């Protein structure tokens, strides 16, 4: 069984996700205690896909999130570094003309500058060896005026919840992974990567440093997950990124 470590070597990460691709969606539903659907709805609403838009869904896995985005008539490019995930996604979304699957490296995207109306990544940024490089690539391929939405595990701000969540990652999740996953060792990496990931304010800072404006975040499930979003400014308004905007926005689901 394949398990990556926190060095996040691309070959290790890709092989690990190839191993879990067959039962990936089922395992996510089990480990999230059903919250995965709510997080996907929140992400889709935050992206706000419109008919005819071109949207990049990076780290799309099997394309479940991409299919949700495509329901409005947007054309969604589902990109992932794992060929195994892409193959499962192609089978699951066969016949969906609005979802296109591409094997892609998040640090070297095979797309043109200013190509997408919106870009999004769910639970994948922390698996990239250089997340700031990936953010720069997402900025590059976003059209001026386009938007970014990131859904990622984060840091609960309330201490008792933070302590309880840490206990869940250390004790409960490994037991559930043994029951639900074809590669439970991979989910030990998942727990490690969550604990190692920076908090909401740090990711907001990264987005601003990349060049995104109107950056904000909203906690979901008491901060276990956070939605971040921003916009790529038009060249004439780049100076708007000089003063940090409020780090909050209204999503369409309750925390």
TrEMBL record:
Domain of life: Bacteria
First-tier enzyme category under EC: transferase
Molecular function via GO: demethylmenaquinone methyltransferase activity
InterPro entries with a match to the protein in the record: SAM-dependent_MTases_sf (IPR029063), UbiE/COQ5_MeTrFase (IPR004033), UbiE/COQ5_MeTrFase_CS (IPR023576)
Listed Gene3D superfamilies: Vaccinia Virus protein VP39
EC number: 2.1.1.163
Binding site for S-adenosyl-L-methionine: 62, 80, 105-106, 122
Protein's pathway: Quinol/quinone metabolism; menaquinone biosynthesis; menaquinol from 1,4-dihydroxy-2-naphthoate: step 2/2
Region (Disordered): 235-255
GO process annotations (BP): menaquinone biosynthetic process; methylation
Keywords: Menaquinone biosynthesis, Methyltransferase, S-adenosyl-L-methionine, Transferase
Reaction(s) this enzyme catalyzes, per UniProt: a 2-demethylmenaquinol + S-adenosyl-L-methionine = a menaquinol + S-adenosyl-L-homocysteine + H(+)
HAMAP family: MenG_UbiE_methyltr
Family (UniProt): Belongs to the class I-like SAM-binding methyltransferase superfamily. MenG/UbiE family.
Classification via PANTHER family: 2-METHOXY-6-POLYPRENYL-1,4-BENZOQUINOL METHYLASE, MITOCHONDRIAL, METHYLTRANSFERASE
Chain's role: Methyltransferase required for the conversion of demethylmenaquinol (DMKH2) to menaquinol (MKH2).
Name of this protein: Demethylmenaquinone methyltransferase
Organism: Subtercola lobariae
């Amino acid at each position: 069984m394949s398990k990556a470590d926190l060095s996040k070597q691309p070959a290790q990460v890709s092989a690990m996700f190839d191993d879990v691709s067959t039962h990936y969606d089922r395992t996510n539903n089990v480990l999230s205690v059903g919250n995965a659907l709510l997080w996907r709805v929140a992400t889709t609403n935050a992206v706000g896909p419109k008919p005819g838009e071109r949207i990049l869904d990076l780290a799309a896995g099997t394309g479940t999130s991409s299919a949700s985005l495509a329901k409005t008539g947007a054309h969604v490019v589902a990109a992932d570094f794992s060929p195994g995930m892409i193959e499962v996604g192609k089978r699951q979304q066969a016949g969906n003309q609005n979802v296109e699957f591409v094997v892609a490296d998040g640090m070297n995207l095979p797309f043109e500058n200013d190509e997408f109306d919106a870009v999004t990544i769910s639970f994948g940024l922390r698996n990239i060896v250089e997340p700031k490089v990936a953010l720069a690539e997402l900025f590059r391929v976003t059209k001026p005026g386009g938007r970014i939405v990131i859904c990622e595990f984060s840091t609960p701000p309330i201490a008792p919840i933070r302590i309880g969540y840490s206990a869940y990652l250390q004790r409960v999740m490994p037991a559930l992974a043994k029951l639900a996953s074809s590669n439970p060792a991979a989910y030990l990496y998942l727990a490690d990567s969550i604990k190692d990931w920076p908090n909401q304010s740090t990711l907001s800072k990264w987005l601003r440093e990349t060049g995104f404006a109107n950056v904000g975040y909203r906690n979901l499930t008491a901060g276990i997950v956070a939605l971040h979003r921003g916009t790529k400014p038009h060249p004439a308004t780049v100076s708007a990124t000089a003063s940090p905007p409020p780090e909050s926005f209204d999503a369409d689901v309750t925390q």
